[in-house]
Design a protein that fits this description.
By secondary structure, this protein is mostly helical. It has helices at 16-30, 33-54, 62-79, 101-111, 113-116, 118-121, 130-146, 152-170, 175-183. The protein is 62% helix and 0% strand.
């Protein structure tokens, strides 16, 4: 839910692995029953999608899509009354009043329903974005260790090499062999196996 991501002109999908962690925390630390019900809803939908994929289906029926969308909304609607509220500060401050983290989570899940449930509508969308995060993690580690890239060209070279390594892995190729072949002038090109 990092707001700068929404500046990109593209369709957005949110990571349900992160939602599950936050929902577990809301349930265990703040006794939010709705959080447990939403976990069940998300995981039931995930299981049904996986079963449909195993059967060679490309999508859930409209009836099942509507079922999960209604179930998701119902759980959040019923959970609204149980949300913890922070006491107003004694000293009035400018800006919006701070909300409880569980209320913030609930608000995000209501506002971004389409992005949360995208995986049930389009089977090419994963339940979580762990793979995408792993692809970006090395870039962030590199920035953290050295502070930054010394030049735009250096950053581009780093990104090209990391992209090539990641693509090799995703295509079940030996990374070392892929690099050797690239150095020899015979790089792996996706779709050309």
């Amino acid at each position: 839910h990092w707001k700068p991501y929404y500046q990109y002109d593209c369709d957005h999908v949110l990571c349900n692995a992160h939602h599950l962690r936050e929902l577990i925390h809301a349930h265990e630390q703040y006794s939010q029953g709705w959080a447990s019900k939403l976990i069940d809803c998300l995981l039931d939908a995930k299981s049904e999608v996986e079963a449909a994929i195993d059967r060679g289906k490309r999508s859930l029926s409209d009836e099942r899509l509507n079922y999960y969308q209604r179930r998701y909304s119902r759980v959040l609607r019923e959970g609204r009354d149980a949300l913890p509220i922070l006491e107003a500060p004694k000293v009035k401050r400018r800006g919006r009043q701070k909300q409880h983290p569980v209320k913030n989570l609930h608000d995000r899940l209501v506002k971004h329903k389409t992005e949360v449930l995208a995986y049930i509508d389009d089977f090419s969308i994963p339940f979580d974005n762990n793979l995408a995060e792993r692809d970006l993690r090395m870039d962030k580690v590199k920035q953290k260790i050295s502070g930054c890239f010394r030049s735009l060209k250096g950053a581009q070279i780093f990104a090209r090499v990391r992209g090539y390594v990641s693509t090799s892995r995703k295509n079940s190729l030996n990374v070392f062999d892929s690099i050797v072949m690239a150095v020899k002038g015979q790089p792996f090109i996706p779709g050309s196996k």
